[in-house]
Each structure stands twice: as C-alpha cells, then as structure tokens.
Amino acid sequence: MEGALSQERGTMTDEVAKKVQDVIDDVELARRSNANLGEMLTALGETVGPKGVVRWPNAVGSRFEAGTSPDFLNSVVVPSGVAPPVEDPGSHYVWTDADGVAGRVEVPEVVFPTMGIKLDDPTLNLDGAAMSVEEPSLEKLAEMNEQAYDKTGVAQILTGVRDPRVRVHGLRDEQEFTCVAMTFSNGDDLGFHFVVTDKNYRRRGLASSLVKRLLADGRRLGMRSATLQASPNGLPVWTRVGFRRVGVIRPYVRQPVVK
What pLDDT, on a 0 to 100 scale, did the predictor assign at position 258? Predict the structure, then answer.
C-alpha cells in the first residue's frame, strides 16, 4: 500500500514538474524571442551553405563574408540567460541580453525591446483581424523592406531562403501588396520578422490587422506564444495588438582597431 502511494506521489510530482516546465511567463517569452531570432538567422545563413550558419551552445545565427550582406542580417544571438562566447563567431553583430561581450562594444542606438504574448491569454483581443491574407513572394517581402528602410542587399539573402519554417504573409489593395510580414515557427513559438507597411498605406491599422489574423491562425494551429524584437517605429503597433515587453536585446560589434 505504501509502495503504491509512493508511486502515485511520484507520478503526481512528475505531472507537476511538467506543468512547471510548460508555464510561459515573461522569462520564458524572452527566451523564446531570442531563440526564434537566432533560428531565423540560421535560415538566412543557409542561403550560402553550411559556412553561413553558426550553431554554438552560446551563439546561434548567420555568418556572411564582409560586404556580402547587410550588417543586420549578419548576426548571431546568444540564448537568453547564457554567457556570450569569448571566441568570435565571425558575424558582424552579436545580440545578447547580457551586459557585455568580450572584445566587442555595444551599439546603444540599435537596442531593441524583446516582446511576447501568450496565445492562450484570455484577455487577448483579436477583433479587427484581417478576413483574408495572401502569400506574397520572398522577393516582394524583400523589395518592400528595402524600400521602407532604405537598405540594399536584403533581396539577395531573403530570396534564397528555403527553410520550411518560414512563411510570408500579406494584405493586398487590388493589385499591390500594402503590408507584408514573415513568420518563423520555432517549436510552438511564432516569431514575427520583416513586418512592413507601404508608406502610402500607413496609419490605417493594416499591420495590426495582419498580425491579429496571423495570431489567430497560429493559436488555431497549436502555437502557444508569439515573439519579436521591436523597432522604435513598430513598438506602438505591437503594444496595441497585445504584445508586452519582456526583455531587451543589445547588439555588440568588434572593437575598432586603433592605428
């Protein structure tokens, strides 16, 4: 009898432990945000073969030869709560929530809040979600991002992505796409990347409408969270949708050589 009771208690303990692991709090959302960004960057790195991918215990992302990609795509991410690598991964940026990286200096003007949302949150209001979403090409996603942020070189990387975890979504006004986004599925976390609205269609709620539809679809498909890294311009949009700030991620670059 005592043995049976002990076995039952052991089972209950295992169940409780699993529930604890399954809890998605702000710390877990921050971890998921960093992990999603890192995995998305590996998908970009794969466009130039194995040499373009960094997958270390303390750094995950892409590695491009200097001048062959925009600097912000040539990045690795340190998993949340992990000490950054001492060895240089060869990428332009090392993104981390730590306070420093050996041999590198912070770029304070590019610090981003990490944001997340639990898709089973009963207070999540998805009213106003777009009725229908189309799937634009990676070329269109790259084109609209290059135009919006005045950056070149994005297309040569994005158009080569073949990772099945990547999906592209968009809203169209007659013939033209007006708002586009990439999502990256990392386990049961849905990451948002490269979200942009055509300058002639801004301040109409298109980004919010698109994101809400993707959140609703993600929840229906069993995704448990959604995460991202917010730019200053995008922060108000994400907050209105229901995302909350769960951390911060800082970029570090190599220290300049003193001659």
Answer: 58
- How is residue 120 written in tokens? 């089973």
Res 23: pLDDT: 87
- 109-129 burial, b for 16+ CB within 10 Å, e for fewer? eeebbbbbbbbeeeebeeeeb
Per-residue model confidence as pLDDT tens digits over 107-155: 999 999 999 999 999 999 999 999 999 999 999 999 999 998 888 899 9
Q: What is the pTM of this model?
A: 0.89
Q: How far apart are the first and last CA of the chain?
A: 78
Q: Name every residue whose Cβ is closer than 8 Å to that of residue 54 and which is 6 or more positions away in sequence.
A: 42, 45, 60, 61, 62, 63, 76, 89, 90, 91
Q: What is the pLDDT of residues 9-52, one digit of tens each?
A: 334 344 543 444 578 999 999 999 999 999 999 999 999 999 99
User: Taking every pair of C-alpha atoms in the chain, what is the biggest distance, in angstroms?
Assistant: 78
Token representation of residue 200: 């002639």
Q: Which two tokens stand for residue 247?
A: 């951390």
